[in-house]
Amino acid sequence: MKATPAHQALLMQLQKLDTEIAQLNHKLKTLPEHEQITAIHTRLENAAVELKVVETELEDVTIDLRRSEVDVEAVSARMEKDEKRLNAGLGTPKELEQTQHELATLAKRKAELEDGELEIMMRHEAVKKRVDELKSDEEGLKTLELELNVRIENATTEINALIARAAEDRMKLAPQIDSALVETYEKIRQGQAGVGAALLIGNKCDGCHLVINAIELERIKTLVDDDVLRCEECRRILVRI
DSSP letters along 98-146, please? Predict the structure, then answer.
């Protein structure tokens, strides 16, 4: 194949634009914010499961606390009633003695119930605190997700503008190059990770980065400037500089 050195130089400019577009598209797909949002979703899912468990535990502890409060209130009411009878001297001496004995028993029972109530209250506070923490974390994660989405939107707008600019430059450049050369370049590019042309730098192909053997280099030296070279290893178009 033949193509003037000028056209081959333009082909390298075309390759540069294609590489830029490919890199920008890759950047668009691999914005770190996407990975961060995925991590946030995982944390939110895990937190939702834990929150459901902890909220159920809080409901149970709340019931236990109310039951304990009712028990204490019942004993307190009974003690108040007995104290009134005792203070009023109502009943026989034996009955008053029994009432006094009952008051001592009730006081002991009340102390036990209050100790139990205190333990339940402490447990209730701990569980309630965990519920509040999980809800606060959830709100924080959702706020962060909104911020990340804004950053993604801004970055996407900026990158798409660069892609559009490069694509426009490419559209203007391609018609200036020999059509057969461009056609060959496009076919090679499809099977070579988007790189259809590379520079020959010294004795190395800048596409596959492999050294060209001495015999091939000697042959290249005999070729005229408009001969289109191909790398023996990767078959990309080689442009001499």
Answer: HHHHHHHHHHHHHHHHHHHHHHHHHHHHHHHHHHHHHHHHHHHHHHHHH
CA distance 35 to 40: 9
Q: Which two tokens stand for residue 23?
A: 């890199």
**Six-digit token string for 193:** 């990770």
Three-class DSSP category at 3: coil
Going from the C-alpha of 85 to that of each of 98, 101, 107, the distances in angstroms are: 11, 13, 16
68, 117 contact by CB (below 8 A): yes
Side chain identity, residue 209: H
Parallel, antiparallel, or unpaired: how do β-strands 197-201 and 237-240 relate?
parallel
Question: What tokens were used for 120?
Answer: 């339940």
Task: List pLDDT tens digits, range 53-100.
Answer: 999 999 999 999 999 999 999 999 999 988 888 888 777 778 878 888
Indicate the CATH number for domain 31-174.
Answer: 1.10.287.1490
Q: Alpha-carbon distance 173 to 130, whole Å?
A: 63
Contact 231, 208 (CB under 8 A): yes
Q: Indicate the domain borders of the chain.
A: 5-25+178-240, 31-174
pTM listed for this prediction = 0.73
- The total number of residues shown for the chain amounts to 241
DSSP three-state, residue 56? helix
Question: CB-hemisphere CA count at 13 Å for 179?
Answer: 0
Note the Cα 142 to chain centre separation in Å: 12
Of 106, 97, 101, nearest to 79 (Cα)?
106
